[in-house]
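Each lists chain and fold; for instance:
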Amino acid sequence: MTAAGQSYDSHPTPMHTITRSLLAALALLLQDHLAAQGPYYVNGQTGHDVPANGTSAATPWKTIGYAMANAAPQTVSTSDIIYVEGNQVYSPATNGESFPIAPAYNITLAGGLAGHGNKPVLALPTGAVGFLFPGNQVYNRNQVTFRNLVLDGGDYGMRMGAAAGFRHRPRVQNCTFQNQAVAGIRIDNSGTSINDPRFFQNVFTGPAMGLAMYSVGAGAITQPDVEENSFQGLGGVAVDLDDQSPGGGNVGGLFRSNYFDNCAAGIRVRSSAGAIATNVQVRTSRFANLAGYAVEVILDHPFDPNVTVDQCAMLHCGGGVRLTGFPLPGAYTLTTTKNLIRNCGTGVNVQLFGQGDVNYTSRDNLIEECTTGIRCLFGSNGTPALQFVMSSQRDRILACDTGIDLAGGAPGSIELVSDMVCRSTTVGVSLVTSSVTTLRSTTIADCNLGLYVTGTLAAGSALDHLVFGANGTDAFVSPGTAISYSCFQGTSFAGVGNLSLTDPQLIRPYYKLQPSSPCVDAGNAAQALPPTDYEGDPRASISVLAGSPVPDLGADEYVLAGSARVYGTGGFGLYNAFPRISAAGPNAQIGQSVQIDLSGALMLGLNQPASMALLSVGFRDDSGALPIDLAAFGLKGSYLWNESTTAFPLQAVSPTGTATQTQNLPLNASLINLVLTYQWFALMPATNGIVSSDALRVTIGQ
């Protein structure tokens, strides 16, 4: 026994056993060393496919296929690289290239070296596949990369799909996929395998689809990362993710900081019976000039799709976001937050007839100049009935033909609270539903018809704390429709707490309440109201000196001490940079100062901060001509949220991507309720250029 109470084997290990183990370890190290014999070189014009070649740029191989087949085999802990000379075409006619090419284990393929000109072009014959990944081979993301290549023509640039027990997770970076007849890249997952490649900074263009990903087997896991890619001029849907797993599958992925321009449609997600989860995150991406929807979720008898669309811009598209299908029993979730949807057919379109539990949550979106802002058509077609829960909070729906259109009926609930629905040319809010409906703390102004209700809302419905301002007709509702604690500028409407023929005194273009508005403190303190107004201010706030917090009517809550709240969709630039604005405190009083902070002004993953930042100041927010997509000015992935009347001097950004500027507010009563808007612009390193933040709306108080 040892002093520590441990017993040792009384028979020590023989020396020959130690020697044998040491020799085995040395042999493994030697094998690893011998396996890594690259880098290798391919040149279709000067190379020769003979074993002695390939190890130098002076004596390269001729074809990529030969290089992949003859590079030294790698082990788990080693990897190697093949460089392909640029400024030339690799094809059967030019250098005898044969397709498809089978990628090798732990071998990276890189187009050219620094200073070697344009990317090499792999010209694929009609019907061909550029790279075909064997299913029974592992491809590791950190050791297998395809970069700086152009794949032109054929049916597919790449096809992958791991067999049971294997994993396909290569990295495809800075490649161009053009003129494929079916899709740039296709993934087929037949089940019990993991396919989670990363597609990074690529360009997809041509007559068909960009990424086509299909999971058809039990236990299929397909979870790609698709970041910083450009999908442009595609005749088909840019990204098609189809989950047909019969059981145990997990399909989805992260789609972040991508550009979709002039395609048939953006991202289409289809989920089928048996999948454990279809988890799709679409974040900080720009969709512009699409014939169809930017994001479409089709419920073809799915189970538990969970789709989030966050901080995306959808501009001049056939539609923004669509959720549709005939669901069976199961759970389905769609969440949209802080998106900009402008000049689209329908901003958000939910059309469901079936069963299951469907939850649609909408927060802090701006939907502007669309045919319809939010449309929900829903109903049951079997037993158990469809359970439909919709919640819209702090959304602004401006200058649409129809603001919100809800039709149909199902168990569940509909909630529209702290919304602004303004400048609708036909109807602001249309309720043709038998579902339990809550329309509360919402401003409906400058519409042809403010509120339309036909039929009988379900028991438990509530319409209260509304502001109707300068509509052609404030409300056309079925007899017996109760509305309480609301302000009607153009009509008289009987109800507890109502203000009839009363000007709500809205400040346009913000539709905020003036301090003297009769809607201030006119709410019911006993009512369970939403926690915040449309900006994020507490719903019951102090509005007079030495007063108590009492709720107001409408989407805005007047705050005596002023407010400083974030609004809008933040930019992302070319390479995952997310500058964001905030205020150190929620209030803004005359005689005080507002500290305006910048965070996130650095390149994600590289930890490289912006060099400088500029804080702009304006007097208008995003209503009217704003926001402006700055892509036309060379700032892709950035948006202008105010008119930038002036700006603070340029200032340095900290190594952690932060900066601070202080706005002093003079002690001048004439400034009370003046609205100022702020936005940061960060000068990012390298080629990422200038990237915009979201915006800050400051309402000066006393």
The chain has two helices and 66 strands. The helical segments are 15-35, 64-70.
